[in-house]
Design goal:
Elements lengths: L4 H4 L5 E8 L2 H12 L2 E4 L7 E6 L2 E8 L10 E6 L3 H10 L3 E8 L5 E7 L5 E7 L14 E8 L5 H8 L2 E4 L7 E6 L2 E8 L11 E7 L3 H10 L3 E9 L2 E7 L5 E7 L2
Parallel strand pairs: 1-4, 5-8, 9-12, 13-16
Antiparallel strand pairs: 1-5, 2-3, 3-4, 6-7, 7-8, 9-13, 10-11, 11-12, 14-15, 15-16
InterPro entries: Anthracycline_SecMetBiosynth, Glyas_Bleomycin-R_OHBP_Dase, Glyoxalase_6, Glyoxy/Ble-like_N, VOC_core
Pfam families: Ble-like_N, Glyoxalase_6
Organism: Streptomyces rimosus subsp. rimosus
């Protein structure tokens, strides 16, 4: 698992994560208390939106859904692109769906789109101008890894076709687990869960946030009104737990091995 911001800027690599919620103020309080994030207004293209900052640098975005939009609340992984319009055409041509965009962000920071792969996992595209993505990664409170949880790793063929990844089997991570590589570096994972994949949410991308102490972070999540979804466990990459915020958006906490 890589923590280098430069890798995240490579076209096809995860470069940003965002969350759309029903109560923006309450969500700011939760993540501010959990990760120490501060917030500043961001583009208002889809309504109220803030960017989260840690150490004065952008790490994530959170927006508020319109009251009538009863969508599932979930973190969205954005993949970097040099040409969002061309990538959107590739997605359609390879059996995926483009639900939103591509369109310009209203602060003219770049172009974005929301898409899904052939199995229904939602992800974003981000073609940045000056801001190419998260400015700080890999330290506690920032994204450190993104993973597609899906029925089978055969869906990696779609991502290879669209983004040019190389894929590597990772036996240490499970029976059906791949890493997606760009320029010789792993940038994301694909976990084939098979029959263990729940009907809800179905195939989906998971954001891992770095933490200095997974167990303490899980306790803090619960204290703040969130939930422990899957208990902390040791993996070859560090101690991992799955949690959810008060609105049910799931994310992983990772205390990396030293």
């Amino acid at each position: 698992m890589t923590t280098e911001a430069t890798t995240r800027r490579t076209p096809g690599a995860p470069c940003w994560v965002s969350l759309m919620v029903h109560d923006l103020a309450a969500t700011e309080q939760f993540y501010g208390a959990l990760f120490g994030w501060e917030f500043k207004p961001g583009p208002q293209h889809f309504g109220p939106y803030v960017r989260a900052y840690l150490q004065g640098r952008e790490v994530a975005g959170i927006g508020e859904l319109a009251p009538e939009r009863q969508l599932r609340v979930a973190w969205t992984t954005y993949l970097a692109s040099d040409d969002a319009d061309a990538a959107a055409e590739q997605i359609r041509g390879c059996g995926g769906t483009v639900a939103v965009g591509p369109l310009d962000a209203d602060d003219e920071a770049g172009r974005m789109a929301i898409a899904s792969d052939p199995q229904g996992a939602v992800f974003g595209l981000w073609q940045g101008k000056e801001m190419v993505g998260a400015a700080l990664v890999g330290v506690p409170g920032t994204p450190v890894w993104n993973e597609l949880v899906t029925r089978g790793t055969d869906v990696a063929a779609f991502y290879r076709s669209v983004f040019g990844y190389e894929t590597h089997l990772e036996p240490a991570a499970g029976d059906d687990y791949l890493t997606l590589h760009l320029k010789g570096r792993p940038v994301a994972g694909v976990h084939g869960a098979g029959d263990a994949l729940p009907r809800e949410p179905g195939p989906h991308w998971v954001t891992y946030f770095a933490t200095a102490d997974t167990d303490a972070a899980v306790r803090r999540v619960v204290e703040l009104g969130g939930q422990e979804v899957r208990a902390a466990r040791d993996t070859p990459y560090g101690r991992v737990a799955m949690v959810a915020d008060p609105e049910g958006a799931e994310f992983a906490l990772l205390q990396q091995n030293e």
